[in-house]
Amino acid sequence: MDPTIIAAVAGVLGVILGAVIGGVFALKATKRQIEVMMISARGDVNERLYNQRLQIMRFFAENPALRPYFADNKDLSKCENELEKCRVLSTVEMVSGFMELVALQLAEQPLEIQPRWQAYVVDAYNSSVVMREHVASYSAWYADDFLRLLPTKPVEPSNH
After folding, report:
1. Which of 64, 75, 95, 116 has the most Cβ atoms closer than 10 angstroms to its Cβ?
2. Could you write out the three-class secondary structure of 66-95?
3. From CA 123, how far away is CA 149, in angstroms rounded?
4. Buried/exposed 50-63: b ≥16 CB within 10 Å, e otherwise
């Protein structure tokens, strides 16, 4: 056989083998890069949720008169005046919006964290007649992922 043909075949095989090996390494590197990005994104989601939860806690610390409506099932009819009622209604939108965000991000959380966030949403819902009335009245505003987490009947919150 002609040495030129052998050299050409060997060259082509070398190129193919190099491309295959290079492709395998590139795929492995890409997979690892995606895994690192997913871990980073999960960390970012966790940080955002915890920071927003901290802001809500700070809000209630600065507005202690509103907390019973969200922790002790205080009814909206117990508002002392219209200003307090407006504050409660605005706050219920803020808290329910955060709870919806938690529900939407639940699948992005580590498996060991998911039940804790789920308990937070359910307990917050069960602790607030104002929240339950709001969600019932405006359920069309909220994602199904959030609504599916909510119990059909309130039960005693697990943290009380």
Report:
1. 95
2. CHHHHHCCCCHHHCCCHHHHHHHHHHHHHH
3. 11
4. eeeeeebeeebeee
Q: Round to whole Å and give the CA distance between 157 and 21.
A: 57
Give the DSSP letter string of 133-156: HHHHHTGGGS-HHHHHHS-SS---
> pLDDT tens digits for 7-39?
777 777 777 877 778 777 777 766 667 666 655
Q: What tokens appear for 125 in the block?
A: 């819902």
How far apart, in whole angstroms, are the C-alpha atoms of residue 72 and residue 63? 15
Could you tell me the pTM of the whole model?
0.70
